[in-house]
Automatic annotation (TrEMBL):
InterPro entries: PP2A_PR55, PP2A_PR55_CS, WD40/YVTN_repeat-like_dom_sf, WD40_repeat_dom_sf, WD40_rpt
Stated name of the protein: Protein phosphatase PP2A regulatory subunit B
Highest classification ranks of the organism: Eukaryota, Fungi, Fungi incertae sedis, Mucoromycota, Mucoromycotina
Pfam families referenced in this protein's UniProt entry, alphabetically: WD40 (PF00400)
Recorded GO CC terms: protein phosphatase type 2A complex
Family, similarity comment: Belongs to the phosphatase 2A regulatory subunit B family.
Length: 437
């Protein structure tokens, strides 16, 4: 990788720029997603809101401005199970754009919605028969029809479809198929296939629910359609496996699947082995050749044609191996870090603690560590964002030592999205959205 490719810099931040520590839970960003062009960007938060940003064409470089905001989900109550259903947005996926309107799917734990976002012209009555003092006379004076003139343009968001009552467990993933007509939704035990146009029925394509729930040994953690082949999709599990399934093979795809799994070294087995091997996210590269998976301590790259072991394993949190007991007690060991490929598939991105996130090349030779932190504003005012960037180059395969005692485990980068066509990334840090280019 050329030196120039390390020149990441902080570009923008949306959100509360003050140093207020009293962040409300509802404002915490829970998902980030660029659309297929990269000209639009969506975030969802724990308060059930979706905020859209659009590229600011008047500015050079990758800069965004606020586009619109709408309330996507409200808190609900499941009376059958006496459970409160949070309004938190788990995932947003953009549909490929076909006309002037945008369509996007958003989901909380139970209900998926298809939103149409479009420009709407507001019109006002400009003139009518009574406007100039003329009283209409039926035979002598013609009746004038009221005229409407354009007053303003607003961005409207309306729910076009609501896909409900198909999941008994928490929805963790939605993925739109390359055919543009279908999408999948995955919860802890099942994956359903939907037609975007039909909201009252779905097909169950994976069901790992045992007859006796006491025999439950794993849950589904993420699922995604192959970017090119509309019959293929993959899903990951809490057991550290990834299954690649073909919908043409069988109605239920969990039996006929190619399994990607790395055998664990028995000598390193511990109480925490199963927790830290649980995969929190999986992504295909744009060409569908590689799979990226993230577990608690590592990032793995798999070749779709080689299921025995990953082609590359990158240790992200090696320095936390001795801290697993503390991380179990403060629940951090269950944090679900996402991962993503760059548009060209040559780079990888995933988050860490202290609001750090890492950008690696596919060979794992370079590690650029950046911090999505409010001090970036101050750094920008000084005129250099470079002091916010810690290029932790791999030295003989060993990284610099990290002082574990100084890590702030409340600050973590769980959600990020990579621009589809260029080196720009959007990163969620608590209630702020950071853009780096």
């Amino acid at each position: 990788m050329a030196e120039a490719e390390h020149n990441w810099k902080f570009a923008q931040c949306f959100g509360d720029k003050g140093d207020s520590e009293d962040i409300t839970e509802a404002d915490i960003i829970s998902t980030v997603e660029f659309d297929h062009t990269g000209d639009y960007l969506a975030t969802g938060d724990k308060g059930g809101r979706v905020v859209l940003f659009e590229r600011n064409e008047s500015k050079k470089g990758c800069e965004y401005k606020f586009h619109t905001e709408f309330q996507s989900h409200e808190p609900e109550f499941d009376y059958l199970k006496s459970l409160e259903i949070e309004e938190k947005i788990n995932k947003i996926k953009w549909c490929k754009r076909q006309n002037a309107a945008h369509f996007l799917l958003s989901t909380n734990d139970k209900t998926i919605k298809l939103w149409k976002v479009f420009e709407k012209s507001l019109k006002v009555v400009a003139e009518n028969n009574l406007s100039d003092g003329i009283r209409p006379q039926v035979n002598s004076s013609p009746l004038r029809l009221p005229k409407l003139t354009h007053h303003d343009t607003i961005i409207a968001a309306v729910p076009r479809k609501v896909y409900a009552n198909a999941h008994a467990y928490h929805i963790n993933s939605i993925s739109i198929n390359s055919d543009g007509e279908t999408y999948l939704s995955a919860d802890d035990l099942r994956i359903n296939l939907w037609n975007l146009d039909i909201s009252d029925q779905s097909f169950n394509i994976v069901d790992i629910k045992p007859v006796n729930m006491e025999e439950l040994t794993e849950v589904i953690t993420a699922a995604e359609f192959h970017p090119c082949h509309c019959n293929l999709f993959m899903y990951s599990s809490s057991k550290g496996t990834i299954k690649l399934s073909d919908m043409r093979a069988s109605a239920l795809c969990d039996q006929h699947a190619k399994m990607f799994e790395e055998e664990e070294d028995p000598s390193s087995k511990s109480f925490f082995s199963e927790i830290i091997s649980s995969i929190s996210d999986v992504k295909f590269s744009k060409d569908g050749r590689y799979i990226l998976s993230r577990d608690y301590l590592t990032l793995k790259i798999w070749d779709i044609n080689m299921d025995s072991k990953p082609v590359k394993t990158i240790n992200i949190h090696d320095h936390l191996r001795n801290k697993l007991c503390d991380l179990y007690e403060n629940d951090c060991i269950f944090d679900k870090f996402e991962c993503t490929f760059s548009g060209d598939g040559k780079s990888l991105l995933t988050g860490s603690y202290n609001n750090y996130f890492h950008i690696y090349d596919r060979e794992g030779k370079t590690d650029v560590t950046l911090q999505a932190d409010k001090s970036a504003f101050k750094a920008k005012r000084i005129g250099s964002a470079k002091n916010k960037m810690l290029t932790a180059r791999a030295k003989n395969g060993k990284k610099e030592d990290v002082n574990v005692d100084t890590i702030d485990f409340n600050k973590k980068i769980l959600h990020a999205s990579w621009h589809p066509n260029e080196n720009s990334i959007a990163v969620a840090a608590t209630n702020n959205l950071f853009i780096f280019t």
